[in-house]
Specification:
- This protein is α+β, with helices and mostly antiparallel strands.
- The strands form three sheets. Strands 1, 2, 3, 5, 6 and 9 form a six-stranded mixed β-sheet that branches. Strands 4-8-7 form a three-stranded antiparallel β-sheet, with no helix packed on it.
- Helix 5 packs antiparallel against helix 6.
- The protein is elongated.
- The termini are far apart.
C-alpha cells in the first residue's frame, strides 16, 4: 500500500481516542478512553446510504481512516469557529520571561497568564478562562508575573462553573472546627492591592467523553461531513455530470453534462445542506459561542 503523506492520510485508527484521553488525564497510564463521536461505519452505512459510489465498501474511494481524519478536522474547525471546545485540549501556563524554561507534553498547548486585580476583593479570585467548557482543572497558582515565584496555590479551593469556564476561590475563616487554613489565604487576598500578581492555570477544555457531546453539535458535524464528501466526489471525480442512465435491454448508457454547480451531481442536496448550516449558525450557534456586545 502506498505511503501517502499528509494529515488526512494518517493511517492510525484508534476509535477509542486515547490521544484525547491523554489530554484529560496527562500522565495516566494507560490513558483514558474518550470514545468515538462519529464512526466511519456510521457515515458509510447510515449517513451516506444509497450513495455507495461516495464511499465504497472496500475503501477504493475513501478509506475509514481518511473519513476519521476528515471528521477530526471538521470538529476542530467547528470548535474554533464557536470558540467552544469539543475535543479535549490540554492547556499549560506559559512561564514568565525570567523563570526557567518549562517542558510540556507535545500534545499540550500554551496559555498566557491572567492578571490578578487585588482591588476587587469581592470577586474572590474570579477568573474567566479564554477557552471553554472546562473539563478538568490541573493546577491553579497565583505567581509574580516578573519572577515566577508562587504566592499561593488555589487548586484545592476552586469553585468551578464548567460550562462557562469560570472559577472562584472563595476562602474565609472557617473556624476552629475546620482549622484555620483559610484564614491566612483570605488575609493575603486583602493585602495584595499594591502587588503585581497573575494567575497561572493548567487546565483541560472540551467534553470529558464523546457521549456527553450534545446531539445538536453532532448533527452539525454530520451535515458538514455530508457537504464535504459530496463536494469532493461531485467536483473531483465526476465533475460536470448532471445525470446518467443505463438501458438494460440494449445495454446502452447515456450521460448528461452541465456547467451549473447546483445541477451537477449532489449539487442541489449540497445547496440545501449549506442553507441549513448557515441558518444554524445564525439561530443556534450563540448557545455555545455566547452573545457578544459592542459599544460605540
Amino acid at each position: 500500500m502506498a505511503n501517502w503523506q499528509g494529515e488526512f492520510n494518517d493511517q492510525s485508527q484508534d476509535y477509542e481516542y486515547r490521544d484525547l484521553g491523554m489530554r484529560l488525564s496527562p500522565g495516566e497510564d494507560p490513558p483514558a478512553r474518550w470514545g468515538c463521536l462519529l464512526h466511519p461505519d456510521e457515515l458509510r452505512r447510515v449517513i451516506f446510504v444509497g450513495n455507495s459510489l461516495l464511499v465504497t465498501v472496500n475503501g477504493e474511494q475513501l478509506t475509514n481512516y481518511q473519513l476519521k481524519n476528515w471528521l477530526d478536522h471538521n470538529v476542530r474547525v467547528l470548535q474554533e469557529r464557536l470558540q467552544f471546545d469539543i475535543y479535549p485540549r490540554l492547556w499549560r501556563s506559559r512561564p514568565v520571561r525570567n523563570s526557567n524554561h518549562r517542558e510540556i507534553e507535545p500534545y499540550a498547548e500554551w496559555d498566557d497568564f491572567y492578571m490578578f486585580d487585588g482591588n476587587q476583593h469581592d470577586k474572590n479570585f474570579f477568573v474567566k478562562l479564554r477557552r471553554r467548557p472546562l473539563a478538568r482543572l490541573h493546577n491553579w497558582e497565583v505567581k509574580s508575573p516578573f519572577t515566577g515565584e508562587t504566592l499561593i496555590n488555589l487548586t484545592d479551593y476552586a469553585l468551578i462553573n464548567y460550562r462557562r469556564g469560570t472559577m472562584r476561590a472563595a476562602l474565609f475563616n472557617t473556624g476552629s472546627y475546620a482549622g484555620y487554613s483559610g484564614m491566612p489565604i483570605a488575609q493575603w487576598r486583602f493585602g495584595t492591592g499594591r502587588h503585581a500578581a497573575a494567575h497561572f492555570i493548567d487546565y483541560t477544555t472540551g467534553y470529558d467523553h464523546a457521549d456527553r457531546v450534545p446531539r445538536e453539535l453532532k448533527e452539525v458535524l454530520i451535515n458538514r461531513m455530508t457537504i464535504d464528501v459530496m463536494s469532493a466526489y461531485g467536483d473531483g471525480i465526476v465533475g460536470g455530470l448532471a445525470n446518467s442512465s443505463v438501458s438494460v435491454g440494449s445495454l446502452s448508457e447515456s450521460i448528461g453534462t452541465t456547467m451549473s454547480a447546483t445541477s451537477a451531481y449532489y449539487g442541489a442536496r449540497i445547496a440545501e445542506k449549506q442553507k441549513w448550516e448557515e441558518n444554524w449558525f445564525k439561530t443556534r450557534a450563540h448557545a455555545y459561542s455566547g452573545v457578544g456586545f459592542k459599544v460605540l
